[in-house]
Each structure stands twice: as structure tokens, then as C-alpha cells.
Amino acid sequence: MITKQCDNCTKKGKNFYCNNCTKTAEYFDIYSYYSNRMSNKNTLIGRIKAYTWHDVLEYIKNNFFNDQSNSLNVDCEKDFAFIEKKSSEQATFNGHTNKSANQHPIGYKIYLNKDNKSFEFSSKVRNFWDLTAVTNYNNR
User: Fold this and answer.
1) Which of 7, 24, 72, 102 is most open to solvent, judged by the fewest CB atoms within 10 Å of its CB?
2) Whose CA is closest to 107, among 61, 40, 76?
């Protein structure tokens, strides 16, 4: 979370920060889904440590989706977000609702992890991505 931006970053917008800004890292749990976001068949795929929701969503867009066009639905609330292929893309990309070996998720749910902010993870968390290790991640 960015608690105070420096004067230079304030001019660039709310999603920019540098080493002079005051920020606190937060943890975000990432779940994939294959049929729809309301399904209870979600798979915890990992955890991201980041300063902003924007960083998390950009990371997921750039690393989990092949198509970088405007074919994604994104919604971000205070403690929850999702990113998924738009309905027409889902229909062609995911012809059935059961996960198969060669099928990719149609979307990802992201939850702000308020309970476990330590690096101690349960065995359910397979992957960990630390976006805070990249200096000025959003300013690339």
C-alpha cells in the first residue's frame, strides 16, 4: 500500500511510486478458475507480495494471459479483484466447464490476504512472486 507518494510520483498518478515514497507491502492470494468466477471450483495457485493492486493486476495480465488486447474484464474492489477473458473469449477458449490437461483458466480471483502476512505459507501455496523486489516496478 502506498501511504505517501513523493512529489514527483504524485504528478505521475496514483499508481506510481519510487524508493522515496512511503509504502508497505501486502500479500495477495491468487486463485484460478475454469468455468466462471462464481464457481466454487477455484485453485489456489500462489501468493504475490506487492505494494499496489495495480502491480498485481498488471503482473497477472502480463504473465498469465497470452492476449494483451482489450479482451479482458477486470474488476478491483477493496479486498477482492478478478481478471478474466471477456464472455465471447470464454466461449471460444473454454468450450466446456471441466478442467482438462490442455485447458487454461479463463480467469483469476485475487484476495488481499489479511490473515497471514508472514512468509510462512501453508503447503497449499505453490508459487510466490515478490513484486517488491523489483525497484520501481510500476515505473518501467
Assistant:
1) 102
2) 61
Q: How far apart are CA 80 and CA 96, in angstroms?
A: 26
Q: pTM of the prediction?
A: 0.78
The structural domains of the chain, with segments of one domain joined by +, span 24-133
- Side-chain-side CA neighbours of 134 within 13 Å: the count stands at 15
Say how many CA atoms lie within 13 Å of 123 toward its Cβ. 0
For the stretch 11-42, pLDDT in tens is: 999 889 999 999 999 999 999 998 777 777 78
Cα→Cα distances 57→6, 120, 133, Å: 23, 23, 17
| 3-class SS string, the chain | CEEECCHHHHHHCCCCCCCCCEECCEEEEEEEECCCCCCCCEEEEEEEEECCHHHHHHHHHHHHCCCCCCCEEEEECCCEEEEEECHHHHHHHCCCCCCCCCCCCCEEEEEEECCCCCCCCCCCCCEEEEHHHCCCHHHC
Q: Which amino acid is at 90?
A: Q
CA atoms within 13 A on the CB side of 133: 5
